[in-house]
């Protein structure tokens, strides 16, 4: 499935690099203990996958490290929300709780800041965007369904 998906994305002009990948940092698997097997396989095989205009990208294992040389951090939208909530403990707590249960897997800056994330509650994939990142909607019942939807022409924001 993953190879078919990557091939499909390449036919759409997306740039991809596959092969041996870095392991996910332990703190990611600790914070998000219910990661879907197919997503873990994807992370293990795909090193880079980004749109032709480089405004939308799948987060890969190397993106989840915390090196300062990355243009965008994997949790950039969480950090922006926390900056906005500075000084409001209830709001900050709600933001942290949301992101503790939603792992970002795709980031986009194409039409404003947006993301796709895996919900730890049920493995579904959700979509959210600025200005209220934590207000999201389900777009697929699973990571597998998300990939299939994209291959079926339902695109990615």
Describe the structure.
With 157 residues, the chain is α+β, with helices and mostly antiparallel strands. It has one domain (2-154): SMI1/KNR4-like (3-Layer(aba) Sandwich). The protein is built from six helices and seven strands; from the N terminus they run H-E-H-H-E-E-H-H-E-E-E-E-H. The chain has helices at 2-11, 26-31, 37-45, 76-84, 89-100, 143-154; strands at residues 15-18, 46-50, 56-58, 102-108, 114-119, 125-129, 136-140. A five-stranded antiparallel sheet has the order 3-4-5-6-7. Strand 4 and strand 5 form a beta hairpin. Helix 1 (2-11) runs parallel beside helix 6 (143-154). The model has no long low-confidence stretch (mean pLDDT 90).
DSSP summary: helix tally: 6
- Provide the gyration radius in Å: 15 Å
What class do helices, strands and sheet pairing give?
alpha+beta
Poorly predicted runs: none
Task: Name the beta content range.
Answer: 15-25%
Shape: globular
Classify the helix fraction into a percent range. Answer: 25-40%
In the CATH hierarchy, what is the class? Answer: Alpha Beta
**Neighbour order of strands in the largest sheet:** 3-4-5-6-7
> Looking at CATH, which topology would you report?
SMI1/KNR4-like
């Amino acid at each position: 499935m993953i190879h078919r998906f990557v091939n499909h994305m390449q036919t759409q002009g997306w740039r991809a690099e596959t092969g041996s990948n870095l392991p996910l940092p332990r703190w990611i698997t600790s914070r998000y203990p219910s990661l879907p097997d197919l997503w873990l396989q994807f992370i293990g095989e795909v090193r880079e996958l980004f749109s032709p205009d480089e405004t939308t990208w799948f987060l890969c294992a190397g993106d989840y490290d915390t090196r300062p040389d990355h243009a965008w951090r994997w949790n950039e939208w969480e950090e922006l929300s926390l900056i906005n909530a500075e000084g409001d403990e209830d709001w900050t707590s709600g933001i942290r709780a949301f992101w503790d249960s939603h792992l970002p897997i795709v980031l986009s800056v194409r039409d404003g800041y947006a993301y796709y994330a895996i919900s730890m509650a049920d493995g579904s994939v959700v979509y959210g965007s600025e200005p209220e990142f934590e207000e999201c909607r389900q777009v697929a019942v699973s990571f597998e369904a998300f990939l299939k939807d994209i291959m079926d022409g339902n695109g990615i924001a």
